[in-house]
Amino acid sequence: MSWDIFDKCNDTKIATPCTFTKDTSLDKLVRENDNGNITASPRNWNHFTDSIFAADSFFPFSSGYTNRNHTIYLPRNLRVLYYHDNLYKMSIPKFPIGLNNKLTHIFAQRNIIYEIIGPVTGISQLQYADLSGNYCKNISKYIPQPFSKLEFLNLSNNALAPIFENDIEGEMFRNQRLLSVLDLSFNRIVHLPERVLQNNINLRHLDLSFNSLSEFMVNISHMKKLKTLELSNNQLVELDSETRKSLDRLPLNSINIHLIGNNLKCSCETLDFLKWMQNSKNVHFVKMKDYTCSFGRNATVSFKDLNTILQKLEKTCSSYTLIIVLMTTLIIVTMTTTISRILYRFRWKLRYMYYVAKEKYKEDVYRLEFRRQNSFRFDAFISYADEDRRYIIELVKSLEKDYCLSLCIHNRDFIPGTGIADNITNAIHCSRRTVCFMTKHFLDSYWCMFELNMARMEAIYSRNGQNVLFLVALESGIMKRLPLQLMDLVNSKSYLDFPSDEGRTGDTESAIAFTAKLGETLTSD
């Protein structure tokens, strides 16, 4: 059936541009038309808009449209709508279309549809939509959801970068499982989230050319039918390893990739990528010989001789790798040596701090501080080797009896069931002084030297440098055998020399004098 209101219009599958009369309304067009296509071209658009954008219009594209409760009814056999190249500035608000329609194709490219808020409903049969070149900067993520049968979507030459860059969960195209062709070129996109196309399992052609992508992180592992990946004229340096693995898992010889016009880099960091480009049997790089990459600081080389590039890189990177390994090894050895020396230098301090911290954890802080500042459980901790025990026991009895001293010796006062190191640290901590009886057996004993060094740390770090460590040389010349780090004790003269071995036992004058001198030292403040 032809339309009387058209000049030279007939019932053909591809409608020709027609001129509308001034009294034509869209309502009348809808009632009378039974054609399969409508074309709105610049030649007839002035007459067309004069009628349909008159007062209380039913066609909600104009910027002055305010009534959003009308439903638009399309001709029941309309399948293709040509609405391109009109340069009409508009924002599409809520746009309900009658359900009884067969519209499958919309050509609306090169207008100024700067915003699509929607929702647009009622065209569930839509398969093809071209909205390119509309300077569009905003599309609601709910717009594509009703179009589950959409197979072709062209959104190129718009300004939709923020929409796609923030689509972290892939909400925009979540219902377009049949989508086969998606064109997002010329949209100023800087980056795309990994899951932005997670639901598009039937995608065959993906065009992201002429954007500003510095990396391509989009997950494509589920796109088993992907044939073309258009990434030309971006800022890509390489394709990451995950993308390469996904491409290699696709059927053999299945995909063409366009990378011309990117900032490809020929360096040690991208060597694996370049080898993959050369050796991959699954991917064909379109016009690969026209690719260029930056080599060194200012040089640019062509991919026409990729083999030579790879040979140079492998030679450079192998020596570079050797240097890295050697430098890394040297750094590790140097750091290990330095740390070991530091640990050895401060080994007694570290041990002391460890055991003191452990003791503080066990005891109440306030009781411990009170004990430090006001009283000690023992007047002295007596450190000696087991080989000298017989003489030391007699000396301790004499000192405790004659001078009323409370002395701590490990054979008698250490707490059973507690570790030796803990007992030693606790005894030193709870004693006003520590007395070490120096013999060759003492110097050869690990635990005796442990007691000596813990007492030194106690004096330095817990007693504010007070002279709380006292040495007794039971053997002549024994002080000369002390380690160098302990010679400060000898220089400070904080020690007593016993005259000879003969006076260790009995009531000799030397033994009595020695006991008296030691007793006076321990009772003094």
Automatic annotation (TrEMBL):
<comment type="similarity">
    <text>Belongs to the Toll-like receptor family.</text>
</comment>
<keyword id="KW-0812">Transmembrane</keyword>
<keyword id="KW-0433">Leucine-rich repeat</keyword>
<keyword id="KW-0325">Glycoprotein</keyword>
<dbReference type="Pfam" id="PF13676">
    <property type="entry name" value="TIR_2"/>
</dbReference>
<dbReference type="GO" id="GO:0005886">
    <property type="term" value="C:plasma membrane"/>
</dbReference>
<keyword id="KW-0732">Signal</keyword>
<dbReference type="InterPro" id="IPR000157">
    <property type="entry name" value="TIR_dom"/>
</dbReference>
<keyword id="KW-1133">Transmembrane helix</keyword>
<dbReference type="GO" id="GO:0038023">
    <property type="term" value="F:signaling receptor activity"/>
</dbReference>
<feature type="domain" description="TIR">
    <location>
        <begin position="376"/>
        <end position="522"/>
    </location>
</feature>
<dbReference type="InterPro" id="IPR003591">
    <property type="entry name" value="Leu-rich_rpt_typical-subtyp"/>
</dbReference>
<keyword id="KW-0472">Membrane</keyword>
<dbReference type="InterPro" id="IPR032675">
    <property type="entry name" value="LRR_dom_sf"/>
</dbReference>
<keyword id="KW-0677">Repeat</keyword>
<keyword id="KW-0675">Receptor</keyword>
<protein>
    <submittedName>
        <fullName>Toll-like receptor 4</fullName>
    </submittedName>
</protein>
<dbReference type="InterPro" id="IPR035897">
    <property type="entry name" value="Toll_tir_struct_dom_sf"/>
</dbReference>
<feature type="transmembrane region" description="Helical">
    <location>
        <begin position="320"/>
        <end position="344"/>
    </location>
</feature>
<dbReference type="GO" id="GO:0007165">
    <property type="term" value="P:signal transduction"/>
</dbReference>
<dbReference type="Pfam" id="PF13855">
    <property type="entry name" value="LRR_8"/>
</dbReference>
<dbReference type="InterPro" id="IPR001611">
    <property type="entry name" value="Leu-rich_rpt"/>
</dbReference>
